Amino acid sequence: xxxxxxxxxxxxxxxxxxxxxxxxxLVDESVNxxxxxxxxxxxxxxxxxxxxxxxxRVQLHCDNCSGQNxxxxxxxxxxxxxxxxxxxxxxxxxxxxxxxxxxPDWCFGLLKRAFRRxxxxxxxxxxxxxxxxxxxSRINIPQLVGHEDGTVVVPTFDWQNFLSPAFRRxxxxxxxxxxxxxRERPGVLFYRSSLAEDEQSRMLIKxxxxxxxxxxxxxxxxxxxxxxxxxxxxxxxxxxxxCEEQRDVVCPLPEINCALCYLCVLAxxxxxxxxxxxx
Length: 279
Description:
This protein is an alpha+beta fold. Helix content is 35%, strand content 18%. It has 9 helices and 10 strands. The relative contact order is 0.15. InterPro entries: DUF7869 (IPR057191).
């Protein structure tokens, strides 16, 4: 198993320290549309819609990963939420250099400890492990983004193309660690490198007309599912290691057209190998 690639599941956590509760989004590879800001914003949006407490002011703490968290699209999203009246104020804070652990890592540590002691064959097993990692306190909460058959539970929206026509980019966004948006100054981003500095501000909405022209929500990005080669790999290489009850869920036989395409690829490769040898 060490040299094989089992079915993958990504985890994205959102922890509310005041409760405390952490929602762990479990992303099966068949429904993993993106690993960047599009996915992060989609999961945050789902969190506010389904796990929010009706809060109007948000204090958000993130790590400094630029591809997922520290970028223009996340800032635009929170400006959009404030202008839409979903929040009155949002403070976005990024951890100082050298400080790489915060509340989600605490919950991930509890989850990792439970994962090492248990047998996980499928997503339902992983959900159970997440729940049992904090059995008494119920801090860790599992949330499936989709099922093994490709059924989507948490949709991924095209936030980048949706927000881009109405917003300007913030120059040098990676240089700053504290951002604030408020309904008293809609569309204005307040920012600074450290709490000891004075805030600066910049209008990021291009125009009121451009913002009003935005649809209510961005379009949903469909999940591509597993490729033919990946389905065949799971069936041929991983299936024997999965418990018998879950084999048809985790590593099912590829659909007829998928299997034929895979066999055709192998046949073509074999033909060219034979041709090279003959000539």
